[in-house]
Automatic annotation (TrEMBL):
It comes from the Bacteria. The gene is acsA. PANTHER family: ACETYL-COENZYME A SYNTHETASE, ACETYL-COENZYME A SYNTHETASE 1. Residues 101-484 form the AMP-dependent synthetase/ligase domain. This is Acetyl-coenzyme A synthetase. GO terms for cellular component: cytosol. InterPro entries: Ac_CoA_lig, ACAS_N, AMP-bd_C, AMP-bd_C_sf, AMP-binding_CS, AMP-dep_synth/lig_dom, ANL_N_sf. Residues 36-91 form the Acetyl-coenzyme A synthetase N-terminal domain.
């Protein structure tokens, strides 16, 4: 059955309930709602005891912890603070001598379809060798390493190798610009950069190393002593003598055996940058112990991973989803997983379905934006519809990164999951480390478009501006009332911003503010996320700060006087970026306007990365402002959507600009 085009546009609320089949319930790790409720009750009764139990069950400690939660310096919470462990040993060494040792850890499919497999034992050796190579370059425990790599086994190895020697990694998504790399390298104080000469995406060879060169040449990155280059393709790259080494050179003569370094549970495993409501991205700092606990436990619970499963999370390692559900969670759980280098539309939009069939994927985890674009493709070309492939290996589907509209949910359920596979709509954020609200495949009755209920121990609530709980049916702010082990520890180098952003005084300074709006259903108390309540957009499941894009636009000082950025709904990307721009020259029209709009789009793509490229650019002689000079963003949001203006515009200095700003280029 093929969906009608309206299937991806509508945001209707779907009230049908899809309970798990008896068979699924019977086989699941968390079997039935009673089992879920028992865990919730355990966490309620003995909060610390519950987390301590899970920490002992999920993590191999080199020194057992005696403390569980330390809230003496809240909101800088500590978990298992006197315990010690190594994250890489928790993913690899733990499996040696078990039946997992010779199991396939990663099935890698390259952009061109070539497949490589590694077992857990082989992966451990590669990580050990790479870790020794890092040590040989002088990288020590506590040093920061920036990783700018394509989706490859080597990317996972690089992260694991850092963890093995106690170095803190900071992965930058391969689609970010030189400027973004430079800013992050400076902020995190990287001593070494791991990159590739090129990455292959959609049949094209795209540069990475030259972007690193450009970033480091911008200045301020003097802490970087070494650049390691993975030669993904045979195309030559430019070597900076005394700084750059190929992987082959760095690995030569290195032993595969590298004892894992024990670190404190609170030791920063990684810093991952994400957008906030100011111009500067935030370095979200995660711990080792608490993070590993929840990464593994959620991989096992949410995806119900069993011995024979083939798991595939399509996220890039440059995002939190790739950290938790590619590099750490599935490996700690001993799963076999698929890692994919390419894009879902190459060589055609049937690639995902073809790969599911080819590798007999049983648990598939992707983003609504990918699903919506594949619905569109299947609607216009029957040959790439999932019905053309054998998807009978699938047993669980997952969704992450943005709200999934009920129509896309239904299409995914019917056409990919054959009406047999539960869909886990997982709500969480970079700052959460791992899943927060999600159905459990063998327990939770599903309602399309709802992420359903919090995981046991996650004290999620919907509150008003004063922090008071709201009844079901009332929309409010999503908060987490108690700390949890995999939570953000601080913003790298900016503890004040950490407190202000996530634990605002208005809510008492102890409650985590997610930055999303939510509402619970009247009947079941199920959560539905209504979108960000701050100046953060969600474009194709990627977070973008409006201020970040505005800063990039006004940085084009020869052209731009002022800019304001808002989001508007988009049927494929969820939200699209719409920029209102005042130029330092008369307002352009017609072809000139189109030309300048293109110039500005390309500029933003260069400044931040292609994901930040504004879809719409509109020009005005001014922006709509209140008398006190504040930009009326609500008005801009209406204009972006093409809605009639119903707001009070009496305070506007020049109402005629509204007509100008309503025009698209
Ligand atoms: O707005 C929410 C949305 O994505 C934001 C977090 O983005 P990021 O830190 O990049 O992490 C994305 C992957 C975990 C949230 O504040 N979001 C994420 N998952 C969902 C979601 N919105 C609705 N439903 C979801 N399942």
């Amino acid at each position: 059955m093929s969906a009608s085009p309206s299937a991806i546009e509508s945001v209707l609320i779907e009230n049908r309930v899809f309970p798990p089949s008896e068979e699924t319930v019977k086989a699941a790790r968390i079997s039935g709602m009673e089992a879920y409720e028992a865990l919730c009750a355990e966490a309620e009764r003995d909060f610390e005891g519950y987390w301590a139990r899970l920490a002992r069950e999920n993590v191999i400690w080199t020194k057992p912890f005696t403390q569980v939660l330390d809230d003496s310096n809240a909101p800088f919470y500590k978990w298992f603070a006197d315990g010690e462990l190594n994250a890489s040993a928790n993913c690899l060494d733990r499996h040696m001598g078990t039946e997992v040792e010779h199991k396939t850890a990663i099935i890698f499919e390259a952009d061109d379809g070539a497949v490589t497999r590694v077992t857990y034992r082989e992966l451990l050796k590669r990580v050990g060798r790479f870790a020794n190579a890092l040590k040989a370059q002088g990288v020590k425990k506590g040093d920061r390493v920036l990783i700018y790599m394509p989706m490859t086994i080597e990317g996972v190895v690089a992260m694991q190798a850092c963890a093995r020697i106690g170095a803190t990694h900071s992965v930058v998504f391969g689609g970010f610009s030189a400027k973004a790399v430079q800013e992050r390298a400076i902020d995190v104080g990287a001593v070494l950069v791991i990159t590739a000469n090129y990455q292959m995406r959609g049949g094209k060879e795209l540069p990475l190393k030259s972007i690193v060169d450009e970033a480091l040449a911008m200045g301020g990155c003097e802490s970087v002593r070494t650049v390691l280059v993975y030669e993904r393709t045979s195309t030559p790259w430019n070597r900076v003598q005394g700084r750059d080494l190929s992987f082959a050179e760095a690995l030569e003569g290195q032993d595969a055996d590298c004892p894992p370094v024990s670190v404190n549970a609170e030791h920063p495993l990684f810093v991952l940058y994400t957008s906030g409501s100011t111009g500067k991205p935030k370095g979200v700092q995660h711990s080792t112990g608490g993070y590993m606990l929840w990464a593994r436990q959620t991989a096992l619970w949410t995806f119900d991973l069993q011995d024979k499963d083939v798991f595939w999370c399509t996220a890039d390692i440059g995002w939190i989803t790739g950290h938790t559900y590619v590099t750490y969670g599935p490996l700690a759980a001993g799963a076999t997983q698929v890692v994919f280098e390419g894009v879902p539309t190459y060589p055609n939009a049937g690639r995902f379905w073809q790969m599911i069939e080819r590798h007999k994927v049983s648990v598939f985890y992707t983003a609504p934006t990918a699903i919506r674009s594949l619905i569109k493709a299947a609607d216009s070309d029957d040959k790439v519809h999932p019905k053309n492939w054998d998807l009978s290996s699938l047993r669980i589907l997952g969704s992450v990164g943005e709200p999934i509209n009920p129509e896309a949910w239904m299409w995914y359920y019917k056409n990919v999951g054959g009406e047999r596979c539960p869909i886990v709509d997982t709500f969480w954020q970079t700052e959460n480390g791992a899943h927060v609200i999600t159905p459990l495949p063998g327990a939770t009755p599903l309602v399309p478009g709802s992420c359903t209920l919090p995981l046991p121990g996650m004290a999620v609530a919907v509150v008003d501006e004063t922090g008071h709980d709201l009844p079901n049916g009332a929309g409010g702010m999503l908060v987490i009332k108690r700390p949890w082990p995999s939570m953000i520890r601080t913003i790298w180098g900016d503890p004040e911003r950490f407190k202000k952003s996530y634990f605002p005084e208005e809510l008492g300074g102890r409650i985590y503010l997610a930055g999303d709006g939510a509402v619970r259903s009247e009947d079941r108390g199920y959560f539905r996320i209504t979108g960000r309540i701050d100046d953060v957009l969600n474009v194709s499941g990627h977070r973008m700060g409006t201020m970040e894009i505005e800063s990039a636009l006004v940085a084009k000082t020869d052209l731009v006087a002022e800019a304001a950025v808002v989001g508007r709904p988009d049927d494929v990307t969820g939200e699209a970026i719409c920029a209102f721009v005042v130029l330092k020259r008369p307002r352009p029209e017609g072809e000139e306007a189109q030309q300048i709009a293109k110039e500005l789009r390309d500029w933003v793509a260069r400044e931040i990365g292609p994901i930040a490229r504004p879809k719409d650019i509109r020009f005005g002689e001014n922006l709509p402002k209140t008398r006190s000079g504040k930009i009326m963003r609500r008005l801009l949001r209406s204009l972006a959507k093409g809605e009639a203006i119903t707001q009070d515009t009496s305070t506007l200095e020049n109402p005629a600009i509204l007509d100008q700003l309503a025009q698209t280029n």
